[in-house]
Amino acid sequence: MDHHFARTEMLPPQAPPITERGAVKWLRENLFSTPFNIALTLFGVATIYYLISSSLPWWLNSVWNASSLSECRAIVEASAGEGATGACWAMIREWWGAFIFGFYPPDQWWRPILAFGFLFAALAPVLFAGQAGNLTKVLGAVGLFLLLTLYLSAAPATVFILAILLVGGMLALAQLRPGQLLLFTALYPALCFWLLWGGSIWSPIVAMAGFGVLYAVFRFASPFIGLSPAAGAGVLAAVLWWLYLDVPVVGALQSILPFGLQAINSDQFGGFLLAIVIGVTGISFSLPIGILLALGRQSDMLIVKTLSVGFIEFIRGVPLITLLFTASLLLQYFLPPGTNFDIILRVIILVTFFAAAYLAEVIRGGLAALPRGQYEAADALGLDYWRAQRLIILPQALKISIPAIVSTFIGLFKDTTLVAFVGLMDPLKGVTQIVRADINWKGIYWEPYIFVGAIFFLICFGMSRYSMYLEKKLKTDHR
Amino acid sequence: MAMATDVPKNGFRLSMLVYDTRYRSYTIQLVVLVLFAMAVAWLLNNTVQNLEARGKEFNFGFLWQRAGYDIGQQLIPYNNDDNHFRALLVGLANTLVVAFWGCIFATVLGVIIGVLRLSKNWLVGRLMTVYVEIFRNVPLLLWILLTYVILSEITPAPNAFRLTDEMIAAGTAPAAEMMFFDSVAVTNRGTNIPAPLFERGLGSVDLGFMTLNLTFLAIVAVIAGSVYVNRRILASARATQEATGDRPVTWWKSILVLFAPVLLLFVMLGFHLEVPTLKGFNFSGGILVAHPFTAMVIALSLYTAAFIAEIVRAGIQAISRGQSEAAFALGLRPGRTMNLIILPQALRVIIPPLISQYLNLTKNTSLGIAVSYLDLRGTLGGITLNQTGRELECMLLMMLIYLSISLSISALMNMYNNSVQLKAR
């Protein structure tokens, strides 16, 4: 009889040796695995130590209440001893209005605030199409933001009530019919224009009516002459409306029902208000133009293709600055004598063209990355060109190019600082230069740049994170 | 049963131009062409009218008038008696030199950061991520302005470098010290760096419109010759390797061929460095690099490096892990795996976006106006434009020049790109 021994129950697992678990293992693997890695770690630690040791006292000694740089320095020396340095954020306290609004009259600050708040309300139906939960969150945040900032900027009571009613109405709509919110998005450009520049309420309404004319003519004519000629006729009618009927109709309405806001001149715009106005308008108009240009470049039609390629290559070959100078110096040569339109508008047009050319290349990349089978399948289904693009090609191509599209937008937003070179007051060069020339704050440099840089960073970083979220959300392939 | 019928042969009707897909594209193209021609005609007509109304005419004769302004940094001889065209050339050279150094520094920095971002070292990886995010999400203009302000406002005056007898007696050091073995001095007036001088230089030849520095030419010729010989050595080594399987040792030959002739030439020409020294109230000797230039190069390369780092990282990550695993399985060490397997493949992914970064950097040099750096934008599009009032001509010329720079950079780099692309049959 043989005796053998077999264990009937498992031994409890032993903890791994101390060097193979917990913080020690992590440190060994991530920081000290090889001599080269150790050197890198030491270098990293030294860098961090240097950065912190040289700037931490400066941050800790920050001063928030002072009326000049010398006073700031005196306060720092009094509290932290001789020779100590400290940040002087009191400058921001005194000048933040100029950084945000430029020379916009302080009693009208509620207008850009309202426009900014509604911007998100208008964007939400596009960004979170049909997601009632997210829509509610965004609208709620907009409501809270408006409540707080309108209160802080001492807005008139009527504005307060109207804003709350509007946001409340949209919140209710988001619960009942989220799709209808897109109507607000369509109306937003006119509302925003009117809020920011003021003047008669009729000019944006009559201008928007041009689109109504376009649609009406299109609907009326399409049964008789077909879709594309009807679209052409609609555009023609709208252009005629804008060219010849716009001004007299506005005048007539204004004389019957005079209602408007105090008009604000473009040279009073400045700071981040200006950057956001140019950036957002440029972004929203450059995307459709960019798509059209990309399609034009991919087109079989020789003339359309040549024109698109020429436009894209020209715009991409010259620096944005030269285009901005074109806006400020040359546009007066190209337009009929006596035409003089707003400098911000001119800059927006050129910035839009600039971004559109870059977007066109990005989207072309997306179009090229689509497998040929997708195009062939669309043809096989018998879809016409526009249906195939709208239903099959573009949704996929745009999804592929989201990261690059958003980087183009980020670049566009950063480039809004260049408008300083055509005399507009951007937050970076325009306002900062005024602050640094102020006799009280002469010699200050870190604080304004850090402040402006931090805001730019927040906005651009936010955009890039949103694009990552979108990419993940739209990811449908299984890898 | 349905039968395929022939296309009805009832002739061409006018409505087919709109409704028949065979002809519609011609209609569309015609409409586009007419619209385009109308727009161009409208613009030209307006321009002619406007020019007439202002009593101006369109010609480039102003380029040959006396410029009458000074340019701080000049790579080709220029004084304010020269004409506007000469000023344009000086500006163009300034644009190109900033772009050149910017591209070099940005590439070096970008590759290092991109590779470090992928390193297994957690701390360094995070540091590099922070760097990339900070530089990518803040406008370039801020970096240019900040660098310039720091250079010109924090740095000490030349006086601070003075070491007087009393200070020696008291044993105190001057307020500021020169860097790199007392050879570089950063003051609020500029950066003084050592100048390379040749005791027995070859002189220069005046070609009328510019002077040719023979010493410089000789050095370039010798370096080119060394590079050529080195390539021949490598080619013969490869031939030997393919014939016999053994690769002859070439590294010492390469080093000798690449460096010895240049060193010899330098010794023959009597090369030495002229170190800047404090004389009177300012530094003399050496080269004074103006702060606008330094600020532009530093800011442009730091900013572009962040983008290049991302490109490099994406390029390396695009190579599938199997490639490096296969290389390790073959017994290649990490260094050779990188050089022979990963990099050649990653380069194909990296190069196209890298080209556009170089283009961006070159175009971004036009921001030099923010720190009064007189590049093409500052001379032709700045002072010349303001002096002569010829907006149309100056802007047109400037755009054309930038356009041709961009197109030639992209053409050159595309040629290179084609040479490294996968040769598919």
Automatic annotation (TrEMBL), chain B:
PROSITE patterns named among the record's database cross-references: ABC_TM1 (PS50928)
Residue ranges crossing the lipid bilayer per the database entry: 23-44, 98-118, 130-151, 207-229, 250-273, 293-316, 395-416
Stored CDD domains: TM_PBP2
GO biological process: amino acid transport
Predominant localisation class: membrane
Ranges for domain ABC transmembrane type-1: 92-413
GO molecular function: transmembrane transporter activity
Top-level lineage group: Bacteria
Pfam short name (any one): BPD_transp_1
Cited Gene3D superfamilies: MetI-like
Compartment list: Cell inner membrane; Cell membrane
GO cellular component: ATP-binding cassette (ABC) transporter complex
Protein keywords: Amino-acid transport, Cell membrane, Membrane, Transmembrane, Transmembrane helix, Transport
Bilayer topology: Multi-pass membrane protein
Similarity-based family: Belongs to the binding-protein-dependent transport system permease family. HisMQ subfamily.
Name listed for the protein in its UniProt record: ABC transporter permease subunit
